[in-house]
Amino acid sequence: MAATTADDVWRLLGELAEAQKETERKFQETEWLLKEQSQETERLLKAQSEETNRQLQAAIQENKRINRQVSKQLAELGGAWGRFVEDLVAPSCSGSLWSVAFQWSR
Questions:
Q1: Number of domains in the chain
Q2: What is the pLDDT of residues 34-81, one digit of tens each?
Q3: Domain for residue 98, yes or no?
Q4: Is 47 inside any structural domain?
Q5: What's the CA gap between 41 and 30, in Å, rounded?
Q6: 102, 99, 98: which is closest to 90 by C-alpha?
Q7: 90 in any annotated domain
Q8: How many Cα neighbours within 13 Å face the side chain of 59?
Q9: Among 40, 75, 90, 95, which residue is least crowded by beta carbons within 10 Å?
């Protein structure tokens, strides 16, 4: 086994310094990649959130439209049902009773 010389020590220290520089470079590269991936993930999540909100608002508006339509149809049905019942009852009422009821509704 040969004795280690000062030149060997300096050479090993140089190699160690180069290896540390390479490790630091790879660390910085990894850190940069992680930062880029994080920003891309945030961008995608924001875009998905905005799309979900847009779809939700569209669904809310559609539900409101349908509610208005159903309410209108129910009101029309109630009016038609009331007229139907009046038409059934009216012939049975005496003239004086019907005229009092008619005046009451005004």
A1: 1
A2: 999 999 999 999 999 999 999 999 999 999 999 999 999 988 888 887
A3: no
A4: yes
A5: 16
A6: 98
A7: no
A8: 6
A9: 95
